[in-house]
Design a protein that fits this description.
By secondary structure, the chain is α/β, with parallel strands linked by helices. A ten-stranded mixed sheet has the order 1-10-9-8-7-6-5-2-3-4, with helices on both faces.
Length: 271
């Protein structure tokens, strides 16, 4: 397996000067629950700085919070869950899973994650998907479309595939299901049916809750205008570099909001 080549960062889509709003990515986010409300805000913080439009759909309580605090979310639309399919059809990429409840009826007002996720993946197999968090813990891997990037940590990988979360098994599953896998850890592995690469870096400050949600938002934002493998490996690298940048300033004493805010500065330097 190879290590990351920084030249790949130069392959990422850069919005041309002649572009108009909407040309540079439309991302649909289906995230968050009453219990895990913050998990929907962290990918939103990242995405709203990268793509032109974010269609944000969470439970009613989270939608109200985002509507009230609409500072970095000016170019976006808050979508009730019953209307998400209209915006899925328009979106370049859909992120589903961060903060979705693991069990049906975990809190009053939450939807069944398995039913919601599998229904949408089956209905829209040709859309670009990033599947993370709660969705990975309840779905069957056989329904993942070939367009999917999944972003499991080790436990989620084991739940999804009923296998140990080794690099070897991740490569096998990427080939078996013809999907892109970003297996998160001290070293990330990114694999698809043809390629596998290790991403090194980061630090212990990135073990805090929510950093995976930040990464999922970054992956999905890049995937709007780039290929799956390029998006996953570049997002992993950028995310780790943002953690390293924060470590220079704060040591390990930073949180997921700090990480989301640092990513644009790191992207400016790297890209």
């Amino acid at each position: 397996m190879e290590n990351f080549n920084t030249k790949d960062l130069k392959k990422l889509y850069i919005p041309p000067k002649s572009s108009h709003k909407g040309d540079n990515g439309k991302l649909m986010m289906i995230t968050g629950s009453i219990l895990f409300h913050a998990a929907s805000f962290w990918p939103l913080e990242v995405a709203s700085r990268i793509v032109d439009m974010v269609f944000y759909s969470s439970v009613r309580q989270n939608n109200k919070i985002v509507q009230k605090e609409k500072n970095e979310f000016r170019n976006g639309i808050i979508v009730p869950r019953e209307k998400i399919e209209k915006y899925i059809e328009e979106a370049d990429c859909i992120l589903i899973g961060p903060g979705l409840p693991r069990k049906n009826g975990q809190e009053v007002g939450d939807q069944d994650t398995k039913i919601l996720t599998e229904k949408l993946l089956i209905k829209y197999p040709n859309k670009k998907w990033v599947v993370d968090g709660g969705s990975l813990q309840v779905i069957s891997p056989g329904i993942l479309p070939k367009t999917a990037i999944i972003t499991p940590h080790k436990k989620e990988f084991e739940i999804l595939f009923n296998l140990d979360s080794t690099f070897e098994n991740a490569i096998k599953m990427a080939k078996k299901y013809n999907i892109t896998i970003l297996l998160k850890g001290e070293e990330d592995l990114v694999a698809d049916a043809l390629n596998a690469i290790i991403i090194k870096g980061g630090n212990a400050g990135m073990t805090k809750g929510g950093t995976g949600d930040v990464l999922a938002g970054l992956v999905a934002s890049l995937y709007c205008k780039n290929s799956a493998f390029l998006s996953a490996k570049c997002a992993s690298y950028i995310n780790k570099k943002a953690g390293e940048s924060l470590f220079e300033k704060k040591g390990i004493y930073f949180n997921s909001s700090d990480l989301a805010a640092e990513i644009p500065y790191v992207m400016k330097k790297l890209i």
